Amino acid sequence: MISMAFTMLSHDGPKFLAMVLAIAMAAFLTQNQASFLVSFLAMSDSQIRDVREADLWVMDSSTECFDQAKPLKDTAAEIVRGFPGVKWALTLLKVDAPARTEAGKLSSVTILGVPEQSKVGEPRMNIGDSSVLDERDSAVIDPGGMALLYPGETFRPGMRIRIHDKWLQIKGVSNASPPFTGFPIIHVSHSTAIQLNRAESRCTTFVVGRFEADADRGKVTREIRAATGWKALTREEFEEASSRFYMDQGVPHLFYITITVGLIVGAAFSGQTFLMFVKENARAFTTLKVLGFTHGQLAVMVATMAGIVVVLGLALGTMLAVGTSFSAATMPFFRSLYLPWQVTLLCCISIGLITLITAGFAFKKVLNLEPADVFRS
Amino acid sequence: MSSVPDLTGAVTCASIWKSFGEGEAKVDVLRGVNFMAALGEMTFLVGPSGCGKTTLISIIAGLLAPDSGTVSLFGERLSLLAPRERILFRRQYLGFVFQQYNLLPAFTAAENVAVPLVAAGWGRENAIGKAREVLTHLGLAHRTELVPQLLSGGQQQRVALARALVHEPRLIICDEPTAALDHRSGESVMERLATSAIHPDRAVIVVTHDSRVFHFAHRIIEMEDGLIRSSKKIESLNQP
């Protein structure tokens, strides 16, 4: 029965191919766009995750995400340290500034100051050692920054970058997570970051800290909020708030639209072609009915045909999505791009369900075929 | 399904009425038809277009239900069978040869012939093996792996005949089996049909317009305007 179904299906090569490709297109588009969405949302809190040592984040009450923060007064870290349940707290300075290379390449960059003593927020390194940040006017750059500011160049220690009127030497390449903004991430020492901070007189973007092991985190953050009027969040709360901020900007809606269009167009085209295939093979199905195929056997045949199309289409679409994901991940700005298995599973279930409904309609058509029509020429 | 008694009257239709349409458009296609086909005989059903031949064989095959009257095949009243039982009955006891052959274009000749066996639950290999045997018997041993498109009309009709015979049914219904063939091919197909299908335990009903093949008939039943006009037993030396 299965081989009969496959033979009938594959006999009409163009339609068979059209159905498989339509499903593959839907599967690819859905998984690819969902993968981008998930990865971009992961980027929205990547800089928070990179400060591995901190589980307490304090910021101005108007700050909504890592990338758009209003500075605190410079005594903020001392104030936070004074709250019971806070093990330590210190200043994290983030500066957004325009940068220029010797070759004249321009870009806005995000500068993160690493405290000289504690090294909190120190980056993991791809090339070189983060201890170079202790050296005067030194910086490390992320791979995205390398690709953007030094296109086609291989890293060599001592490459120069000018921020405001100060030249820095790049002495290593970090493994900083890609930010949502896409700007290069430059790590410098805290004191260097202060020198580069021209837009603000205040030099405390965030206070990052750690809770005492036995502290009631909710109580500590509530107390900080109540006493200072600042926003005090656990790391998880701040990650969620940052993600929510970007989601609320409407960015995900573009992905939702593409995903929905991919699903509807792909599945509808495939479904329509499948129904057309059944219609064009009405005489064959009628003959099978007359020759003694039961409704159950015909259902198995139709389900097998739909199953073959959907399995091949999903396999092809998933392979393309995985391939694209891997290929894009080799590019510096997309290096955190990944395809979660949950996305693939959800996509397969959605397309499988739509195909099941289509197969149901196709089977209904087969059931409604009038066997006596077999005698009509 | 009850056991099938071995009756000489393989097919018995009594007072069959069938109409299509409603109100003013209602047409009585069959008007109290009484029909019988005997075992071991080839019964020809002849008559002008629109006289009700196709409707009658559709009812005999259980593909259409009569408005009134009874149809018995080998002693089994079709109207008493549940829809699924009717399908299983048709699968087991009936074989069909159609005017346009109705071969499945995607399948080879052997696969086409194997269809009734696959429907009956045979494994693919066994079914194809049996189909090849029947095709060989009908002189198509060298054509078993070709798709219908590559066969001549006469060969396609012989494949269709093989499909009608492969599961050894007790009633074979042929609808205009020679209409799409030239005289020589038609004659050849009818010879194969007469040689292979006629059996003491089997009845054959042939609907045809083609008077050139009437000499193969044991009985010719003539229909007109939804009624049986005549039933004539043929004593011909041409019969095998």
**Shape descriptor of chain B:** globular
Main β sheet profile of chain A: 6 strands, mixed, barrel
Strand composition percent of chain B: 25-35%
User: Which secondary-structure class do the elements of chain B indicate?
Assistant: alpha/beta
By CATH, the architecture of the domain at 9-101 and 172-233 in chain B is named: 3-Layer(aba) Sandwich
Strand runs of chain A, count = 10
Most extensive chain contact? A-B, 26 and 33 residues
What does this structure look like?
The complex is a heterodimer of chains A (377) and B (240). Chain A is an alpha+beta fold. Chain A folds into two domains: 2-44 and 250-375, no CATH class; 73-229, no CATH class. Chain A has helices at 2-11, 13-44, 46-50, 76-81, 143-149, 190-196, 217-228, 235-248, 251-280, 282-290, 295-329, 341-368, and strands spanning 56-59, 86-101, 106-114, 125-127, 138-141, 159-163, 166-174, 185-189, 206-211, 231-234. Chain A has a six-stranded mixed beta barrel. The longest helix of chain A has 35 residues, at 295-329. The two termini of chain A are 27 Å apart. With 240 residues, chain B is an alpha/beta fold. Chain B is built from six helices and ten strands; from the N terminus they run E-E-E-H-E-E-H-E-H-H-H-E-H-E-E-E. The longest helix of chain B is centred in the C-terminal third of the chain and has 15 residues, at 183-197. Chain B is globular, with a radius of gyration of 18 Å. Chain B starts with 8 loop residues before the first strand and ends in a 7-residue tail after the last strand. Chains A and B meet through helix 1 and helix 10 of A and helix 1, helix 2 and helix 3 of B.
What can be said about this structure in brief?
By secondary structure, chain A is an alpha+beta fold.
Could you name the key traits of this structure?
heterodimer, A: 377 residues, alpha+beta, 2 domains, six-stranded mixed barrel, B: 240 residues, alpha/beta, Rossmann fold, six-stranded mixed β-sheet, four-stranded antiparallel β-sheet, globular
